[in-house]
Write a structure and sequence with these properties.
Layout (H helix, E strand, L loop, with lengths): L5 H16 L5 H7 L1 H20 L3 H25 L4 H11 L4 H9 L3
Helix pairs in contact: 1-4, 3-4
Length: about 110
């Protein structure tokens, strides 16, 4: 496993614990207490901020993009933890798609069953 994934694994473990224990005074608890509506609203807000930051020029814009990507990833992980989804499950889904064109994957999702 890459060292760059270790912080994500640690964060996911913390979020899963917060989903179970809901400690008072925790921002994560506040989000989870609001359910998918509150968490989803934050994800949409952070996604919009990420897209805006992507258009900012220079190193300052790049740094802002990285910051907003962190926010979006954090809030997405909160939603996964809220629903009891482990990061490994997402990694398995991505591995399942590996080598498949995104266009083919999308067509397969829209095909009648």
């Amino acid at each position: 496993m890459s060292d760059s994934l270790l912080p994500l694994d640690r964060l996911m473990k913390t979020l899963a614990e917060r989903a179970e224990t809901r400690p008072a005074g925790s921002y994560t608890t506040k989000l989870m207490d609001g359910g998918t509506a509150k968490i989803g609203k934050k994800i949409m807000e952070e996604a919009a901020e990420l897209i805006e930051a992507a258009d900012e020029p220079g190193d300052e814009g790049r740094n802002h993009l990285i910051y907003e990507a962190g926010d979006l990833i954090y809030h997405t992980l909160v939603l996964l933890a809220y629903r009891g989804v482990d990061l490994e499950e997402v990694a398995s889904e991505l591995a399942r798609r590996e080598g498949t064109s995104g266009l083919v994957e999308k067509a397969n999702r829209n095909a009648p069953q």
